[in-house]
């Protein structure tokens, strides 16, 4: 399958999100829950949209919860995922290959005097594809956030988002759009779409440099096609899974409250929690995944996971 991209009169859209450094949090992983919780069967979907206001007492300060509960799972499950990063054949079928790609230690690539095309897989399973032949440049670019799009710019972004979705669907990726931006350089537009990787609509997280973080996919696009595709942590799909019952938000807060009082979790003083979300945690070493409740803080538009509790066992995992 070869994706055809619409060539617009306004040239290129490219999507670029800068990686923002997150403050270091001294957290304790794999700490057993300090409260015995009787897990009961109930419809977790009823938690969706709840608003929670609560102060959780710590030894030296409080965790201030003023958060909305987010649940996107139709049925919560746990099991195993398998890594299915794109192969050379898939890349050749999906994208126009200008020159034959030659094998490298961790991927395939080709060079000309001024251009590059190829892909590689990093040690952490992250997949990265680049095709500079479709780049329209970024010189003196002005970044435009989605909230400031004109109607014409929104139309351009919609076209690119559709093409990006076709690309990801062809690869078997399950994602959810998180942000869209445009860059304008002269008469040219470029831009990036950032997605969270998901399992059946539920965001996927993993441990990155000691912190739990959402697994992200970034696509940079122009009117000529995909310039870059980056899947942090790699592309994963369900291998086997079984439905499970999970703790309620009230049970979650009881666990976190006792852990905070006893000092078995640690966050910055007076941390403010903006969201409580049910997500899946991936152990990339074993492929195991399971549901976790996450307490999340918004820091300048970036979501940082502050506390993470196993939604079945009640163990504090972060």
What does this structure look like?
With 318 residues, this protein is mainly β. It is 13% helix and 42% strand. The chain has an 18-stranded mixed beta sheet that branches. Strand 9 (175-185) and strand 10 form a beta hairpin. The radius of gyration is 21 Å and the shape is globular.
**Count of helical segments?**
3
The major beta sheet can be summarized as:
18 strands, mixed
Task: Indicate the mean pLDDT.
Answer: 85
Low-confidence stretches: 1-39
Descriptors:
18-stranded mixed beta sheet, 18 strands, mainly beta, 318 residues, globular, disordered N terminus
Describe the secondary structure blueprint for this structure.
Layout: E1 51-57, E2 62-70, E3 77-83, H1 88-94, E4 102-103, E5 107-111, E6 116-121, E7 127-131, E8 142-145, H2 151-171, E9 175-185, E10 188-199, E11 202-208, E12 211-214, E13 216-222, E14 225-231, E15 236-243, H3 249-262, E16 272-282, E17 288-299, E18 302-310
Parallel strand pairs: 2-16, 11-16
Antiparallel strand pairs: 1-2, 3-15, 3-17, 4-5, 5-6, 6-7, 7-14, 8-9, 9-10, 10-11, 10-13, 11-12, 13-14, 16-17, 17-18
Would you kindly provide a brief summary of this structure?
The chain has 318 residues and is mainly β. It is 13% helix and 42% strand.
